Amino acid sequence: MDLQEQIEALRSSHRPVLTPWPSPVDGEVGSVALLAGSFDPITVAHLAMAEAALGGSDLVVLTYSVRTLPKETAVAPPLLSEAERIATVASVCAGRPGLALGLSSHGLLADQVAAARALFPGAAISVVLGSDKLRQLFDPRWYEDIGASLLGLFAEAELRYALREGDDVGEALAGAARLGPAARVAPLPVDPAVAAVSSRGVRELARAGSDVSALVPPEALRAVVDAVRREGG
């Protein structure tokens, strides 16, 4: 099955599925961390979080959802095509033991955790995210019953977050405390300045003609440069 066929199969799946790409994961995995993103492009923040998560996991799966969640309409169009994002992340993972790319049929964290549970039965699962996503996760405005929704997630996984420079996660951690001991949330040892590097910020800088070589892994730089050149005609 080629990439486009795999993407279409995942998009048509009603049950959550996580597929390692381009090849299956070798060996038994006792613990796995999921780091989800649009990876447009993958940044040094993604890589720093993944490498920090390896300190407590056998495998870190950089998870790309082929069925993305809707975003605000004012957001600029993607810089990299879907195929370019997948190829770039696969290249980053290929050169770094312990990292793998996973294609996900669903975009919600709870669904991705369920898919990981099916793929890695018996493994300890964690979800890796930036502190901005942690704050969103504990924002009660997104839920009818935040306790019921999040306790289901915590029944299968712990959360490990990287504090981004300028972020305050006090309310999120208080929300976790209210859920009780089942809500497992722990920080990752990532430089807050590095964690603050966002794909959106990289896109804006690249489109403005700035040098982004310090903000993306070397495997992603050529794809970014080529995409900006393509947009410029």
Helical content, roughly? Answer: 40-55%
Provide a count of the helices. 10
Largest sheet: 7 strands, mixed
User: What name is given to the CATH topology?
Assistant: Rossmann fold
Termini gap: 33 Å
Number of strands: 7
Q: Output the CATH class name.
A: Alpha Beta
Overall pLDDT level: 93
- Radius of gyration using CA atoms only: 17 Å
Give the ordered list of helices and strands: HEEHEHEHEHHEHEHHH
Q: Would you tell me the structural class of the helices and strands? A: alpha/beta
* Dominant shape: globular
| Integer tally of domains | 1
- CATH architectural designation: 3-Layer(aba) Sandwich
Widest β-sheet, arrangement of strands: 1-4-3-2-5-6-7
- Considering the protein shown, what is the CATH homologous superfamily? HUPs
Low-confidence stretches: none
Q: Approximately what portion of the residues adopt beta-strand conformation?
A: 15-25%
